[in-house]
Each structure stands twice: as C-alpha cells, then as structure tokens.
Recover the amino acids of this structure.
C-alpha cells in the first residue's frame, strides 16, 4: 500500500454509504465553546418553540372543557406553580443540566442518544440493543410529528392576535398564516447559522418584551410571586386531583420545545444553549407566566387571551407583529432539529440517503435537507387548513412531546448507567423524579387522542413504519448485494486466470470499500468481456473537520500486484469539501501507482441497484413496496460525486427483495 498521507475516521460517501455508520466527531472549535454570536444564534433558533409557549399555554389551561379550571386563587396559584416547576424540573434540570451532557460527538436528539446507548451496550444481548434502537426510532418518529404541529400552532396563535385588535380580521388569519409559513420554509436553504443571526436579535427583543410586560404586572401584584412555591402545585393536586390531571395535559404546552433544544445542540453547541437559557429565556418566561396568572386573578375574563390582554391597547398590534416573527422562529427550532434527526437516522441506516447541504463553513451541525424541509412544509399547510385554529390544534399537541420526553429519559438513564457508571440509586432517583412527571403528562394527553391527539400519533406511526421498513429492507439488500459482489481479491485472481482482453483507457468505479467487487466492474467484464488497461476503484469518507488539504487526503493501494493496472484510492473529505471524485482522480494521477491513469477522459462506471419485488421472505409485500418507493427517492450517486454525465456509464444490477 502506498500512502500520500494518513486519514482519519469518517463515513462512506458513495450511494452505499448507509451500509456503514461511523459517527463523525464534532469539530474541535465547537467543543471549545462559542461566543456571543453562537449564543445569539441559539436564542434565534433553539428557544423559539418554548419561548412562544406563553402565547397559548395559560389560555389553553383555562379553556379546558368549558372552564373546569376556574379563575380562583387556588386554581390560578396551582396552575402557575405547576407551570413554573414543570419548566424548572423538565427543562432547566433534566434537559439543560443533564441531557445536554449526553452528546453523541456533539450531536443531540433522540436518534443520536439512541446510537450512544447502543454503543455503550455493544456487549449486551441482541434484544437489549434492538429495544434501544426501537425506542430511538419511535422517539424520532414522534419528533417528526411535533415538527409538523409546532409551526402550525405557533404561527396560528400569533396571527390570531389580530382578532383581539379587531374581530373582523378573523377571515385573514389562515391566508396570512400560509404566507408566513411559505416564507419560513423557503428561507431554510440559507442555513441555520444565517437564520439564527437574523432571528437572534428578534428573539432578544421578544424575550425582553415578555420579561418587561411580566415585570410590570408582577410589580403591581407582587403577591403572585408566592406561586413560585411548589406547595401550591401540591395543594392543587391534592384538593382537585382530577382537575389537576386534566390541567396537566395543557400545562405541558409550557415545556414544548425542550426536545428541540436537545436536537439542535449540534447546530450551536452545549455552552451557548445553556447560557441563553439561564441568562435570558428562563427569567423572561417565569415573569410572563406569573403576570398572566396575576391578570387572570385581577380580571377573570382575560383568561380568553391573557397574553395579549396583558398589554396596553396601543401595544397589542405591534406585539402581534413581533409574536408572528417569534412564532416563525419557534418553527425554526423543530425544523432545524428535524434536519439533525434526519441526518442521524441516515447514518444509522433508518432513512435513505437524502441530499444534505452543509450551510456553515465552520459548524458541522448546521445543515439543510431539502427533502425533509419541503415534506414538512406540505404537512404543516395541510394541518393548518384542516384544524383552522390554534385552540383546535392544542388538542393535538402534547402526545408526541410527552412520548418523546419519556423515551429520552429512558435512553439517558441507559447511557448514565452503562457509560458514566452512575450508581443504581442515582439512576433510580432520576428515573423516578422525571419519569413520574412525564408519565403523568403523557397519560393526561392520552385523554385528548380522540379530540385531535390522533394526528401526532398517526404521523408518528407513518414515520416509524417507514424508518423500520427502510432499515430492514436495507439489511436484506445489503446481504444480497454482498453475495453478488463477492470478494475483490478472488475476482482479480479470476481475471488473471481468464486472461481477459485489456482495452485502452481508464475505467473508474466508485465503491464504498476495497473488500468487495463493484457490481459495475463485474457487469462490465461479464457482458463486454474486456477490462480497461487502468482500473481505479475510489472510496470516499467524510472526516470531522471542515477542510482537508489535498496533500493529506489520499491513500493509494495497488491491491497486491502493481503490474495488473488495478488500484484503489481512499479519499477523505472535510465536511465542507465537495465530494468531487473527478478531482480525486486528477490529484492522484501523478502518483507512481497511478502511472498511465487518464484523469481527463476516464470512463466512470456507476453501480445502480434495481430492486425487484419477489416472494422471498424477509418483508411483507406492502413493506417491500414501501421500501422500493423510498429507494426511488434516494439522491443520485453520480450527482453527489460530481461525475460528468458525458463520461458516466450507469450499469444496473437487479437485486431481488
């Protein structure tokens, strides 16, 4: 083997790279933390969801079942205490303090956590590993459901503020919401970093207004500060257990966005997210919820929309505009989180390879996935026009969020016990505290299934089915493809024995590894009965840094016999480097082992798998159809590798499924 330089770990960059799933490490600069810019960006992306919950959380609680939660001192103090301690325990302690520690090479989200749990259980029995990954896939599926509901309810709740200023504006709510959502999803291609830089200052103003409006009301009625005591939540639960249980299904709206906070960790890093939470978001939310509670006590009719009625009349229309901007940003949190979850699912083999565009030159986690973006956009618009109002959508909210909470807690405890060696008593204590709260919220939201909660469960079931079907189908196809490929050394020996005719020119075969034979190479020899004078097999990997210099990028192997004209090139790319295989060939052409290789006019032979549905066991017929449909939506390998169309030959091989 001849090396131009050594290479690092990475993942395959051909269309078959889902078959290998090593995790790229986070770039070192992100590990060292970030400054004000990342903290501002985190405010603009990560906290949009939970930061706009005051728009509808308290309103929804006091609108439950015609007003079973009353505007009395006992109920109001009980509700605001439940809200504050839910935020404190679930967001501040569980997610910000504990869960953010469980990064998977800098990446967050339930799929990354499941992969981390799988790795620490590598010596465990198969059933435990299967259970862990099943939980991860289920959590990811529920998160996608949340990613559809959040933009819909957030934008609708803000624009419905127009009805507070003038009831005649009700008719424009849905059209305006559709326009706002269209602009939001169209802007995703600019990247999380740029979006965060724009949204960050807006969210600073938003949280400043939340805190200011809240502080003014709290100063007028400082007694409401007593609601910070957990005793009021306990008394509410003891005195009115059924009402408290029903209220819990709406109180959870105050903590939606916590899972997006974790999923977005790869975009900004742990430290900026923590700084933004404790310095800005948590104080502003606390003041605003306290103020809404004080207003409801002072003016019970205000419970119809305590957020906007907290403001003086002159400030309501400007606040509608600001709230609209903030809810657009709220949608950004789950959208960018969905991108991160999707990439992790691709790495783990639960989604086909989709086109991913790196949107930052420095941050590995900042990406844009067009297929996911526009799929979410269509689903969000359907939900907006089907439900028509944030109040109706609130009944669909919560099931996915609380289900994801429970799954995240379970996987976190697995990691804490197996990787960090936490003692059993600590694992049990953490599980009891967070698990009991989240299980209560989940049970409370199950009561809303018939009234709209079915939507997130349906979305989650569809995504879960697609993910496990792709994973199982990929396993079957991979096994059958490896059988067809066969070992590369044996194939080369057969070529020598068969004395195959050599023709002038250079043939290049993109392939994930040098262990098996590219199907296109087999097909070319089998059908044309010739072999080019120079045969090059190129494999690509993506490393954990933005750029790798060309003089450190390539490893060239003669595959045993330097005189047979067959070589292998392993190329390692930085995550900002284009996967340009023609340029790889040009750079390698001057190497002694690549003597005679034509880098300008080679023939590129790409192996394409054509799936054929058969009666073979492994998948039900309807799942085979789904798997084949998903495979058709995978990105083009030739396009991904920058292969010139006029020099590329695609050889198709049929693989039975």
């Amino acid at each position: 083997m001849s090396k131009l330089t050594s290479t690092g770990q990475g993942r395959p960059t051909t269309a078959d790279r889902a078959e290998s799933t090593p995790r790229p490490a986070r770039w070192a600069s992100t590990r060292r933390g970030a400054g004000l810019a990342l903290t501002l960006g985190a405010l603009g992306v990560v906290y949009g969801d939970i930061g706009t919950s005051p728009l509808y959380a308290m309103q929804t609680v006091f609108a439950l079942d015609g007003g079973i939660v009353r505007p009395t001192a006992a109920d109001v103090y009980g509700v605001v205490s439940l809200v504050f301690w839910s935020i404190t325990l679930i967001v501040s302690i569980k997610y910000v303090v504990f869960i953010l520690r469980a990064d998977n090479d800098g990446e967050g989200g339930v799929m990354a956590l499941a992969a981390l749990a799988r790795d620490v259980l590598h010596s465990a029995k198969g059933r435990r590993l299967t259970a862990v990954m099943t939980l991860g896939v289920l959590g990811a599926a529920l998160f996608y459901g949340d990613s559809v509901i959040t933009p819909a309810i957030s934008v609708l709740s803000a624009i419905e503020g127009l009805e507070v200023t003038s009831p005649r504006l009700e008719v424009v709510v849905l059209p305006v919401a559709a326009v706002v959502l269209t602009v939001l999803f169209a802007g995703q291609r600019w990247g999380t970093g740029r979006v965060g830089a724009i949204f960050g200052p807006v969210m600073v103003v938003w949280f400043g207004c939340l805190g200011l409006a809240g502080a003014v009301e709290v100063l007028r009625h400082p007694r409401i500060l007593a609601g910070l005591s957990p005793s009021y939540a306990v008394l509410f639960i003891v005195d009115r257990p059924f009402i408290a249980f029903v209220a819990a299904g709406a109180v959870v709206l105050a903590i939606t966005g916590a899972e997006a906070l974790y999923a977005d960790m790869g975009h900004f890093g742990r430290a900026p997210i923590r700084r933004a939470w404790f310095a800005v978001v948590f104080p502003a939310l606390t003041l605003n919820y306290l103020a809404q509670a004080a207003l409801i006590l002072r003016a019970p009719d205000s419970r119809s929309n305590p957020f906007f009625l907290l403001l003086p009349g002159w400030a309501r229309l400007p606040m509608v505009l600001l709230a609209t901007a903030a809810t657009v940003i709220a949608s950004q949190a789950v959208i960018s989180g969905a991108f991160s979850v999707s990439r992790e699912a691709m790495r783990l083999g639960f989604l086909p390879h989709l086109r991913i565009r790196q949107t930052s030159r420095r941050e590995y986690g900042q990406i844009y996935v067009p297929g996911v973006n526009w799929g979410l956009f269509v689903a969000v618009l359907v939900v907006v026009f089907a439900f028509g109002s944030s109040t109706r959508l609130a009944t669909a909210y919560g099931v996915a969020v609380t289900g994801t909470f429970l799954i995240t807690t379970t996987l976190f405890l697995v990691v804490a016990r197996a990787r960090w060696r936490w003692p059993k008593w600590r694992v049990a204590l953490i599980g009891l505290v967070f698990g009991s709260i989240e299980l209560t919220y989940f049970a409370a939201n199950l009561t809303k299934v018939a009234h709209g909660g079915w939507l997130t469960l349906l979305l989650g079931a569809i995504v879960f089915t697609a993910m496990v079907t792709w994973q199982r189908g990929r396993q079957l196809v991979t096994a059958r493809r490896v059988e067809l490929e066969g070992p590369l050394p044996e194939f080369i020996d057969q070529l020598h024995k068969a004395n195959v005719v050599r023709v002038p020119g250079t043939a290049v075969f993109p392939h994930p590894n040098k262990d098996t034979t590219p199907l296109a190479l087999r097909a070319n020899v089998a059908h044309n009965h010739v072999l080019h004078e120079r045969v090059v097999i190129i494999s690509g990997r993506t490393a954990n840094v933005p750029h790798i210099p060309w003089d450190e990028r390539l490893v060239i192997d003669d595959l045993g016999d330097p005189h047979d004209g067959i070589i292998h090139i392993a190329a390692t790319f930085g995550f900002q480097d284009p996967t340009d295989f023609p340029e790889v060939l040009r750079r390698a052409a001057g190497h002694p082992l690549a003597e005679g290789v034509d880098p300008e006019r080679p023939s590129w032979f790409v192996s394409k798998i054509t799936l054929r549905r058969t009666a073979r066991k492994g998948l039900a017929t309807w799942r085979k159809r789904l798997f084949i449909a998903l495979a058709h939506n995978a990105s083009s390998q030739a396009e991904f590798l920058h292969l010139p169309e006029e020099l590329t030959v695609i050889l198709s091989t049929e693989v039975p499924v």
